[in-house]
Amino acid sequence: MSRPFALALHGGAGPIRNADQSREIANMGALLDQGRVMLSKGSAALDVVVAMINGLEEAGYYIAGKGAAPNRDGVFELDAAIMDGAARRAGAVCALSGFRSPIKAARAVMDQTPHVLLAGAGAVGFCAEAGLERVDEPENYYTPAALSSASTDALSHGTVGCVALDQSGALCAGTSTGGVLNKMPGRVGDSPLIGAGTWADERVAISCTGQGEYFIRAAAAADVSARMKYAGMSVDAAAAGALADMERQGGDGGLIAVDAKGRIALPFIAQGMRRAACDGAGNITIKVFR
Q1: Looking at 99-138, which runs of residues are DSSP E strands?
Q2: What is the pLDDT of residue 153?
Q3: What mean pLDDT, rounded, does the chain reach?
Q4: Which residues in the chain belong to E strands, given as ranges?
Q5: pTM over 0.90
Q6: Topology, domain 6-287
Q7: Which of 152, 159, 175, 198 is labelled catalytic?
Q8: Is 209 a residue of the active site?
Q9: CA-based angle 197:31:276, to the nearest 5?
Q10: Is 242 left (phi over 0), alpha (psi -120 to 50) or beta?
Q11: Average pLDDT of 239-252?
């Protein structure tokens, strides 16, 4: 008898500029179906999370991967993180330029180095040595999914992420982003910071999306697990509590979470959050607004 599995992914929370979300819904739905099949056949949560986020990066519909916008100087700097809950292994890159898949770069850091986070030129050098796929002509590759002229005061943002529970009981979380629009060079948000925007352990896996500065101040991702461990909260209550604390810092956004029993939480404090989820029982959710 197969054990329960669960999967959730997001394409960003916050101001949803494009009222027509049909392409995003179709993209998330196709990826969700692919991930469901992978998990049903026994794939590891880690492999599924990387595959899902890579698919979101490649779509170009979100402010991540191909859809990222340049920083204030016209340079594309991307961030990503992955965390394998069973062993608490983690890898991340930030302010990475010139490579196609930040989430694959993050996994390479986790698998091939003793470190957790590589930044800037160091991340670029490592990715080159690892043979990861380059972006040779950024101006012809990237298709910014939102206007890059937005005010940094508004912290306009976008992120993609995925969390999964596989049939072995392992949890994994990953997040990838192009960061806030028109950001200062070198700006790093919560996505590549373990505990702020990405977290997975033996209890729960979390990927956050929103105004990263506020998620950092609230240590939002790790806070979900802490609430479950120390206060005995359910994943729904813990996720809602962590988001409420983030909101008290002044931010908005949302998160996706799945616990060790396959229960899924998809809360957000924003106009909308592109989100999709499924479990082994056949329950499926694909929504943008409430």
Answers
A1: 117-119
A2: 40
A3: 93
A4: 6-14, 78-84, 89-96, 117-119, 159-165, 171-177, 198-200, 204-210, 253-259, 264-265, 268-269, 272-279, 284-287
A5: yes
A6: Glutamine Phosphoribosylpyrophosphate, subunit 1, domain 1 (3.60.20)
A7: 159
A8: no
A9: 55
A10: alpha
A11: 96
